[in-house]
Specification:
The protein is mainly beta and 157 residues long. Helix content is 4%, strand content 50%.
């Protein structure tokens, strides 16, 4: 089983902490865990994680830095045989936001979800929200959130 939570990865910097939990002889324990957070000042939170049939993990999350990285969607992953506790596949962008939320009456990412396609148990489907100039201009009170659905496979599956 895999799960994740939002954490303070460094002072005033959001990150995504992930866990793999296994059950052996009826006893649950954490097999591995890690935190996704860069040294670039970009917050990464509101994540969702899933594992494919080969044991590879994909973790998606929201990003923002408050100045130049607008609310967007990114993901990372690891292969089953990689070093424990590491997301080794680097970070990729689903979509970068193009505007900042300027009103306090809206939030995003609460419904982020990473799921595995039951047809092949290899295709990850990820949904999250991002913010655009066009959305902000067309929405009342600046609630210009957009939803994006992405799909991808990790190498070897």
């Amino acid at each position: 089983m895999v799960t994740n939570q939002s954490v303070e990865a460094a002072p005033a910097l959001g990150g995504t902490r992930w866990y793999e939990i296994r059950r052996t002889n009826g006893v649950y324990s954490i097999r591995q865990q890690g935190t996704v957070a860069g040294n670039d000042g970009v917050h990464r939170w509101m994540g969702s994680i899933a594992a494919d049939k080969r044991g590879n993990f994909a973790l998606g999350y929201s990003v923002v830095d408050g100045t130049s990285v607008f609310p967007g969607i990114r993901y990372t992953g690891r292969l089953a045989g990689d070093q424990l506790g590491q997301m080794t596949l680097g970070e990729a962008s689903v979509i970068e936001g193009t505007a900042a939320q300027t009103h306090t009456n809206s939030r995003w990412g609460d419904y982020t979800s990473m799921n595995l396609d039951p047809v092949d148990d290899c295709t990850f489907w990820y949904v999250n929200e991002y913010y655009t100039v066009e959305g902000a201009a067309s929405a009342p009170l600046g609630n210009g959130w957009q939803t994006r659905i992405a799909s991808f496979k990790l190498p070897g599956c």
